[in-house]
Amino acid sequence: LNISYVTRRNRIGRNHINFILLQAMKFTATQIAELLEGDIVGDPNVEVSKLAKIEEGTKGALTFLSNEKYTSYIYTTNASLAIVNKSFEPIKEISATLIKVDDAYAAFTKLLTFYNEVKQNKTGKEEPHFISDSAEVGINIYLGAFAYIGNNVKIGDDVKIYPHCYIGDNVTIESGTTLFSGVKVYSDCKIGNNCKIHSGAIIGADGFGFAPDENKVYTAIPQIGNVIIEDNVDIGANTTIDRATLGSTIIRKGVKLDNLIQIAHNCEIDENTVIAAQTGISGSTKIGKRTMIGGQAAFAGHIKIGDDVVVSGFSGVRKNVRDKDIVIGFPAYNIQKWNKSSAIVRNLPSYVEKINELEKELKALKEK
Q: Which of 152, 120, 160 shows the shortest CA–CA distance to 136?
């Protein structure tokens, strides 16, 4: 236990160590309250060994209440321990012991994060695998079976590369990054610290660049750039990010990408932008900071999206969008104008009836 604490305390903290020591056994309300800095209402010695949703809680389970819609379940749940907000005041008897915290959702998320890190705390090299003699590999890494590490690759400390991953030549992967099973990283790409790339994602495939001749026969344009992914980026399963024709396709720090997203060559996604599933972004488009993009949105190439923009799902963005604008529709435009247009469209049947009546009256006047 002392060795575990000394070697890991700087990276994950004393409270996290406590949770690691407890996660394989039952632990008490007192221990959880200490971890979350909460107050206990009920039996401080009640023990739990699993996590559960409040409506599915059973004896020995830990749950939480943060959404008022689920308040009724706090009185019927069979969970032994529940995390609630300090503002919560029960109106009838509750069988579960309560731990009151400032933010129940955040506290429960903290527990889930701890549990997930423990579950994924893999180390060592499984067989068979291949590491080039010219590759540089840091300490405390996990390398799954059938993983391939190419020439001149540099891998930092605490990196996790799950089975069947491919890391091409000259790739750099910084410390604390995880590549789940089946991720492919093509040559010359760079991935920052503490990134998470889920199964099936492909980083650095050729951009969609073809030149037609006089007979409309297409020839591939060599794509000799790379992809740069900065720190703390999450990339969902089966998302693809194409390498630049020249230069770099860049995903800035803190970006969160959902599953099944296509980002074309020479795009740039700026800091802390979030993009939902099945979005497609054409080549050389620049998307600003803190932008939120709904599912199945589509972007034309060579356009610029400002900072703090919101793009509604299913929108088709064909031109530049200024900072802090909210756009919707196809083609996408300002949401206030869209709402007015939508109201007009909804009333079209009544407008048609009125026009028909006016035409009849006009015809009668002409005949008269």
A: 152
Instruction: Say if residues 73 and 88 touch (Cβ distance below 8 Å).
Output: no
Angstrom distance (rounded) from CA 355 to CA 310: 38
CA atoms within 13 A on the CB side of 280: 8
For residue 275 the two structure tokens come to 């993009």
Q: What angle do CA 19, 22, 25 make, to 5 degrees?
A: 150
Contacts 24+ apart (CB under 8 A), 310-318: 313/276
What whole-number distance in Å separates Cα of residue 210 and Cα of residue 215?
14
Distance CA 128, CA 143 (A): 10
Catalytic residues: 265
Task: Check: CB of residue 295 under 8 Å from CB of residue 274.
Answer: no
Please give the angle made by the CA atoms of 189, 190 and 194, to the nearest 5 degrees: 140
Single-letter amino acid code for the residue at 292: M
As averages over each run of 10 residues, the pLDDT of the chain (368 residues) reads 32 41 67 92 93 92 93 95 94 94 92 77 92 97 97 97 98 97 98 98 96 93 96 98 97 98 98 98 98 96 97 94 91 70 78 88 89
